[in-house]
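Section 5.1 Outputs to date
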Amino acid sequence: MAYTRKDVSALTAGEKRRFVNALLDLKRRGEYDEFVRMHIEYYTSDGENGLRTAHMAPSFLPWHRKFVLELERALRRIDDAVTVPYWDWTRLRSARSVPWSDDLLGGNGRSWDQQVTTGPFAYRQGHWTIRENVTDGRFLTRDLGRARDPIDLPTRAELDAALNDPVYDVAPWDSTVTRGFRNKLEGWGTGRGSASWRTHNRVHRWVGGVMLGGASVNDPVFWLHHAFIDLQWTRWQQRHPGVRYQPERPPTPGTAQYRRVVARHEKLPPWDVTPDSLEDVSRIYRYV
């Protein structure tokens, strides 16, 4: 039977506690840092050579679907009542709203070094030392809303603009495309500054701190954010029945994206799965 993923604002006090405790236990076991390492390894940009799977590519959505599912399975081995909740940032838009409470993710970082000092993941609690990072920082950092150069979270209208696009993705299958649901949701835009960060990407910028780079998994809000992104893929499929992941076939030899993106029926590293196999997960979980 499929289990449910809930809106974070609908969690009971007990559900919050169990979710937090499972994350802390996974961290104590050393397993959580494996997820951080994996995301850093597979954070390959357009400007780098080789296969892109996690970002700036059509497989952004299936890769992160599998990634969140693997984390969820690890949590459920600890406590089988736990599932990953989602954060609807079109509705919960304040640094004072859920999930930034002391009984869940803790609050904003302090002004001079962005260190989070409240909640169960604060460094001073002694349970959440950052060991895998792209810098030498050891504590969780946030800059909710970006104090020195404020930005807003994406709106429902901006999210709908992505959901209304009837095409999954288009060539050249990278961060430069202006058509297709995948990049409109992932959020690589044209221009400079805030205008170039949209939807998914803008949320990472709004949270700030460790959420800004490949080591963003160090902030547990990563999972709540990507559960909501995953929900949007499901909603997009419901709006556009029968429209499939693209590309269906691999780019041909001699083209710029040859061996750089994953086609529908190709294996999605580092797992033995294909995007095709991840398009329907309704037998595993559902959203409420």
